[in-house]
Amino acid sequence: MVAQRMCTGDCRDAGPLQARSQEEAEWLIRHQYPSQAELERLRSESLDVLQQKASVGDSTAAAVLGKRIALEKNFMDGQVMLRNQVLSGNFYALYAISESYRESKVPNAVDGAAYLRLAYIMGDHKAATEIAKMGLSSAELAAADRRASLLYKGFAGDQVPDPRPQG
């Protein structure tokens, strides 16, 4: 499992699913981040297959399912599923929530950035890079930060931030 998350080649720009050290790969596993290959495989599955995998405890399948339900069926039902994943320690679900806001029929970049900021607050320093890639204005970034501070209490639960190892 660790090997699947290790960056190969030039790792300076390793994405949020890639680790530059074994310690970082273990952090990804602990916080239920999928490998890139696992995520791509699950994204191609039907809703029924995702539901079946999620029902037996596959947290990545549950995050992919929550995002798909949010985008394809009922936005709020998908968000509830994703929030439950975050409360169970699945920090990757914050990325899925962010994507669902940015990819919805009525995109909301500020809320999308707020959930990435929450991932950052919980310890994922690579979420800041993902926010920067969004190209938001200063006002939008300030609004996203305010929103993230409001979301923290409802999403962090009794979890404490666990900083991602710097590779």
From TrEMBL:
<protein>
    <submittedName>
        <fullName>Uncharacterized protein</fullName>
    </submittedName>
</protein>
